[in-house]
Amino acid sequence: MYMWIVLVWFASDNIAGYLTSPIFFYPLVLMAGLCVILHQLGLLKLFIDMGMPKAKTTLNGILE
Questions:
Q1: Tell me, what DSSP letter sits at residue 1?
Q2: For residue 48, which of 57, 58, 39 has the smallest C-alpha distance?
Q3: Cα 30 to Cα 50: distance, rounded to the nearest angstrom
Q4: Which residues 6+ apart lie within 8 Å of 35 measured at CB?
Q5: Domain-by-domain residue ranges, the chain?
Q6: Which of 38, 40, 63, 41 is nearest to 51 (CA)?
Q7: What is the pLDDT of residue 41?
Q8: Alpha helices of the chain — where are they, by DSSP H?
Q9: 3 and 12 Cβ atoms separated by less than 8 Å
Q10: What does pTM read for this prediction?
């Protein structure tokens, strides 16, 4: 846990730089907005439940 806090502390200037870049900021805002809309419609949990097994299978296949 302490290592994550130290990592965030030292990477904060990089994170702020990424957020000021329109190349990273606009897609991030669009994805966050899409997640909010899906959550309000009650579909976000459904998509997460459907996508997690496929993501785990794909990741396990890559790691093998």
A1: -
A2: 39
A3: 22
A4: 44
A5: 2-63
A6: 38
A7: 96
A8: 2-20, 22-41, 44-63
A9: no
A10: 0.62
